[in-house]
Amino acid sequence: MKHVRHFTPSLFLSLVHVCLVQANYAPYFFDNGARSTNGNMALFSLSEDTPVGTHVYTLNGTDPEGDPVTYDLTYEAGSRLYFSVDKNLGNVTLIEELDREKEDEIEVIVSISDGLNTVSEKVRILVMDANDESPEFINTPYIVEVPENTPSSSSIFKIEAVDKDTGSGGSVTYFLQNIHANKFTIDRHSGVLRIKPGVTLDYEKSRTHFVVVVAKDGGGKLRGDNKVFSATTTVTINVEDVQDTPPMFIGTPYYGYVYEDTLVGSEVLTVVALDGDRGKPNSIHYCIVNGSEGSFEINNTTGAISVIKSPNQLRKEVYELKVQASEVDQESDASVYTFAMVTIRVVDLNNHPPTFYGENGPQNRFQLTMYEHPPEGEILRGLKITVNDSDQGANAKFNLRLVGPGGIFRVVPQTVLNEAQVTIIVENSAAIDYEKFEVLTFKLLAIEVNTPEKFSSTADVVIRLLDTNDNVPKFSSDYYIARIPENSPGGSNVVAVTVS
């Protein structure tokens, strides 16, 4: 016999009730869309200039059974922690500064839990750009070599700057500082640097140009304000020399001097010329074009000018030489040259004192015999005196004067240049008196005027006087008293009288 066990309906219902009470559904997040700041952070985006500490989002979800839920944020191992969450309220706070240029997307694992069930979702948070970067020039420093004959308007270099921002904040335009003073222009979009139209470069005037370039972004929002950032850099433009300038003399004007004791072959002076193209200079060849008259020569290589005649053979006091300097260009047959004038003066040394000469040569004593009381203004023609200074110019200028009893004679001329005949003229006839002076002696003095040496010389002038009958006899006394004895014989001396 089989035994069958039967269950009552009340017991079945009781068992079913128990099973329904023990079931628990997982909590879930609300998905409120990309523009929401409330939900599961799906498609959430955040500007990189958001301040640290800002409440940026609220995690929001529910549990089907109505149980309280908690929230959590976790990250992959090694990731930077940018956010924190209030586990009960779901408030998400930024705790680390954002930088889109370093990290433009952040992966976060958001979790919601009812205590029994936990639901996690991996979400990507987009970091939005703010205009917080300045343009940066790349491949600096900028140094450009440009030949001086580069045509105007030619492009010579391309400047490039980048801005890590996006949108208008990442666009870059270019400008030059002090645009009116520059010889260059820049394309504001491409950054191509050019020589200004109508402008040429000149190595001889300016070998280096410093151009300041400004790179500016298009502007954008940063913490609510519109910001524009810029950067500057300097482009060094070195102008390369080309052969386009004739040589030029330096140290002009040129003056040289030849002295009377200068030896034949002595160097008088050196002229120096340089190729006007200083960057790639050619050597210089010198020659005298004219003015030398066979008296001077020039070293073709050094420019040294020498005298090739003895100074006493030089017939001019001043020589004007025309000197030519020519470039020696090994690559071209064309001759580029320039001229300079050289003035050479023949200079006398003051090495000769004034000297007196008689008819037979140098003489320092002159004599004359003459009658007393010659007429005033009469020239002493018996004296043949010449005075000479063999120097030249100011060195040969001297004065003449008589040194002796004053006011009797005067000398003509009183100032001499180089040479003169000396004339002595009577000034006081009465003083030329044989009865007072049988011999008159004077010193004839010649002394240089404008020289530091003040060279001088003297000559004696001796004048012997001859007597003339110019005096009446005169008794030695105006009257005489004589006493004669009465018996004096004839022929006796009565008195002595004297006459002169």
The CATH superfamily of the largest domain bears the name Cadherins
Number of strands: 40
Largest sheet: 5 strands, antiparallel
CATH topology of the largest domain: Immunoglobulin-like
- The Cα radius of gyration reads 62 Å
Number of domains: 4
Count of individual helical segments: 1
Mean pLDDT: 89
Give the helix level as a range of percent: under 10%
Query: In whole angstroms, how far apart are the ends?
Result: 229 Å
Q: Which percent range describes the beta-strand content?
A: 35-45%
**Shape label:** rod-shaped
Architecture of the largest domain, according to CATH? Sandwich
Poorly predicted ranges (pLDDT <50, ≥5 residues)? Answer: 1-20
CATH class of the largest domain: Mainly Beta
Strand order of the largest sheet: 32-31-34-38-36
Task: State the secondary-structure class.
Answer: mainly beta
